[in-house]
Specification:
By secondary structure, the protein is an alpha/beta fold. It is 47% helix and 16% strand.
């Protein structure tokens, strides 16, 4: 069977199987005004089996959006409020001594859920943040000498305040790299803020979202996302983008050689490919085009490019570097 026929069949399959995207968007719009970019990225993380980090000042509906998405799916949801006095056992669980049986039993922590909201993740110290590392990467948790698998699907949706705010601890690079996407949120537009005021001050009760999916539906959609066709030229394009963050001079970006301390890891390439497939799925396409890769490059790379002191002195951000990479790397 030739590729054209395969793609046509894939398009037909996705047209049928992606109908729930519209339903979820409709439910989310009941409670979230604007912020379409954030909702899209949350769907990409969900479909591509990746974790999501939302950054923005307090009050931008980050927590509400995550809770609302979890409410559209018939799955377990837990919220962990990260604070400076939190302990790793408060996240993953611990062993409890039972006097009657003279033995230890395991009490599982809130991380044992399909959707885990790690609220204000950078307000807790590094030892607590690292408690999530094994869970996020291996989809399992070790308590004492026992290892437990986490439920499927398992998704960490974390919020963080900008680093310059009071009482925040910067996330270690190893943990930040575990997040497939980092989305930076801005304030809503004037018209949207007017609607937010009306919704939150009206006499009627605050709208609630309906459950429209089961975990099995998400697992099925993830299988289809992985089958989305990606041409070798697109794979090459992804590799070029990531390599340009490591070897800028090889891609005509010699000026940035001293501004980048480290570039994207192989995990960046994997996540860029998976997120591009999920983005194509959301757009109801059975194949990836270069625009899909460009659309999610900032979210995949902004937290994976390390900046030197020189870059910070010149007010060069990772956003700016990703812009330059996308402008320089040849589009297939």
């Amino acid at each position: 069977m030739d590729t054209a026929t395969d793609i046509r069949q894939m398009n037909e399959l996705i047209e049928r199987e992606s109908a729930f995207i519209e339903l979820i968007n409709r439910e989310m719009e009941k409670v979230i005004i604007g912020q379409h970019y954030m909702i899209d990225r949350m769907m990409i993380a969900l479909l591509a089996n990746g974790h999501l980090l939302l950054e923005g000042v307090p009050g931008l509906a980050k927590t509400l959006a995550i809770k609302s998405l979890a409410s559209t799916i018939e799955a377990d949801f837990s919220r962990i409020q990260f604070t400076p006095d939190l302990l790793p056992a408060d996240v993953v669980g611990t062993q409890i001594y039972q006097i009657k049986t003279d033995s230890f039993s395991v009490r599982k922590g809130p991380v044992f859920a399909n959707f885990v909201l790690a609220d204000e993740i950078n307000r807790a110290p590094a030892k607590v943040q690292s408690a999530l590392l094994e869970a996020m990467q291996e989809k399992q948790v070790t308590i004492g000498d026992q290892t437990f698998d986490l439920p499927k699907p398992f998704l960490v949706l974390a919020t963080q305040n900008p680093v310059e705010q009071e009482g925040t601890y910067p996330l270690p690079e190893a943990q930040v790299d575990r997040f497939m996407l980092k989305v930076v949120l801005d304030y809503p537009k004037r018209e949207e803020e007017m609607r937010i005021i009306r919704q939150n001050t009206s006499a009627s009760s605050f709208p609630a979202v309906s459950k429209i999916l089961k975990p099995a539906d998400i697992m099925k959609a993830r299988d289809i996302v992985r089958k989305v066709y990606m041409d070798e030229k697109i794979e090459q394009y992804i590799v070029d983008i990531v390599f340009a963050s490591r070897e800028p001079s090889a891609y005509g970006l010699k000026n940035y050689e001293d501004l980048i301390s480290f570039g994207g890891s192989p995990r960046a390439s994997i996540n860029l490919a998976l997120a591009a497939k999920a983005y194509a799925f959301i757009k109801r396409r059975g194949y990836v085009i270069p625009e899909d890769v460009r659309a999610i490059s900032h979210d995949v790379l902004r937290h994976r490019i390390g900046l030197t002191y020189e870059a910070e002195a010149e007010n060069i951000t990772s956003e700016h570097i990703v812009d330059e990479i996308l402008n320089k790397v040849e589009v297939p």
